[in-house]
Amino acid sequence: MRRRPQVLTEVREAPAPQERKTATRVLVEHHEVLRGLMRRLMETPRPEPGRRRALADELFDELWMHERIEEEVFYPAMRDVTPGIAAAWSEHRQLSDQLAALVRADPRTERFDRELGVMHDALESHAHLDEERQMFPEIERFADEERLIELGDRLQARLGRLRSSRRVRAVLRLQRALLRRTAR
Amino acid sequence: MGLGSDMAQRTLDRLLNAIEGDGRLDRPGHRLEQGLAFAENLAGVTRSRARGLLHGVWLGHPLHPVLTDLPIGSWTTALVLDLTGQKRAARTAVGVGLAGALGAAVTGLHDWQHTHDNARRVGMAHGTLNTLALALYGWSWWQRGRGHHLRGRLAALLGYPVIMASGFLGGTLVFRHRVGVDQTDRQLDPRHFTPVLAERDLTDNRPHRVRAGDVEVVLVRADGRIHALENACPHLGGPLSQGWLRDGSITCPWHGSEFELRSGESLNGPAVAPAPCFQTRVRDGWIEVRRAPKATSSPPGSALVHQQEVRP
């Protein structure tokens, strides 16, 4: 039902000059963004809680958007290509749960480091072990290249829209605040 | 079988296939799950003992089907009491059923969020029917309290077939989709110690997938010991070797079930059955595994005790 108006707005905003890439490449590049955030977070020592918190917030937002573009654009389109979609969807749930645990931990404590370690492992399990090593190669073998490029465009456009949306930013800020407020 | 039962079976089959193949249920389903996830994280359920409690880890099988007996039983009782004209007792029975239905709803949603594809869609239909029945019986209870017994009886009469149909879908989830059923294949192999990996190839604190005959095994060296568990999670068969290790346990990457490395015991759900374990030893630089006999209290002379006796 809500598909149509979205597509229309996409056409109106589309002429943004972006390089055309396949969907899998867009996603792998975004995995790299997430990995970079993860690395910076792990390099930031405990005596810098402010920076740790800011980076955790950024990871929360980027990972949330990553899940949304995969779930709204990529996974539904790939259902017939690979049987691994349902499992990948479940893995997102694990990442969301772990993100919640991470932002609820005080960045000055050892608990934060522990949650960060689990976050790292969970992200690698989903992004690398599942998607980059199993699902994406399978998709690149069996899916039509044209279709993957068209999906890549949609993924990039959707990610851009999410990143620049004030409403999304506000919702994410509210989510983080509520999670922190109720932390024990 | 007669023509009638044949047709009934075909109709039910067609109905189930229609639900299972309906992709339109996915979007609202995932929205609902996201809401549930946020609520559970806010309440701190995800990382607390409540998680396993609601899944039924302590029970050894899912808690949800136990609680569904309450509304079905109570509302059947209410139907009989309505027929025999016992108004007050009928209202009490409806009320007890309502309480049970709420418990069943909480545990059911808690289990449903960790299902896949077809089972997920059937679960959506099951939950929708239950919500409808709950609303009808809730209204029935309220009307009876205000003295409108006829309306109350009518609502209950409408709600009863709904809850029966929903019970049928619940049965489908277990017997057709094996939700909540232990998915391990209960093999006995390998019965003898089988070499699976050179010891120097096993890194500390990192899961490693190997094969022992037809069985996939995940090896983990932690705290100076080598642990071996079946690679497929007993919940839905997730690959434990892609999971992560913490505090002597391994977590399934699909739905977050945590298993104790030493015993394979499930710690938090959604897996309610333990992951099967293997005995390990190192011979000539090779790690060898053998199926660990199940702890049992069987009488002497039973097959399992005999299996334990052949230990070298």
TrEMBL record, chain A:
Region (Disordered), start-end ranges: 1-20
Do you know which Pfam families this protein is assigned to? Answer: Hemerythrin (PF01814)
Q: Could you tell me which residue ranges the Hemerythrin-like domain spans? A: 23-138
Species, as recorded:
Microbispora catharanthi
Q: Where is the composition biased (Basic and acidic residues)?
A: 10-20
The protein in question is named Hemerythrin domain-containing protein
InterPro entries with a match to the protein in the record: Hemerythrin-like
